[in-house]
Design a protein that fits this description.
Blueprint lengths: L3 H26 L4 E3 L3 E6 L4 E5 L4 E6 L2 E10 L2 E10 L14 E7 L6 H7 L14 E6 L2 E9 L3 E9 L2 E9 L5 H12 L1 E2 L1
Antiparallel strand pairs: 1-2, 2-3, 3-4, 4-12, 5-6, 6-7, 7-11, 8-9, 9-10, 10-11
Amino acid sequence: MVNYNYMNKNALVWALVVAVLATGAYFLLSRPAASVPGGNSATTTPQTGLQQYSSEDGYSFMYPASYELSSRTEGNAERQWDVLVLLPKGYVPPEAGEGPPAISLSVFPNTEGLSLEQWVQGDARSNWKLIVDERASRPMTVDGESAIWYHYSGLYEVDSVAVAHDGKIFLFSGDWLDPQDAIRADFNNLIKTVQFN
């Protein structure tokens, strides 16, 4: 004998589950772009769990949604550059303390018209002088542009990728403590998604 009450309860539970999932999917897909200072934007791609950062200057990259993006300007009136920093969501920096390993992008105007190699090896902001040895660097490409990858030791271990594009030097850096840290893989995956428009 068929128990119709049991079947009706199962059907009701499944209908509620489907309704909740459909509502969640609707809100994720219709979510507006997050605002980032400077007229730039970050949008979520629900299928991959990645966010896309797009600059009004014409470059973009993807990063995990578990990171929070902030931006600032550093330097002085004569020598300024923009910095983007990716930190784990919910991280509260300690007062007068060091932050956790992070992923960052600094965009420097190349007003002197230096080659990428000249800038990396001659500008203190690249931290080139902190590399262990010359084997800790190699040429590569980022979205078809010539780039230099190098590794140095400071407060953390750091992988950096410098790229020259459109009169600017883009310096991507990923801090880590252990070679197996997830942030290192996140940094490498971010570099693979960089696009210059």
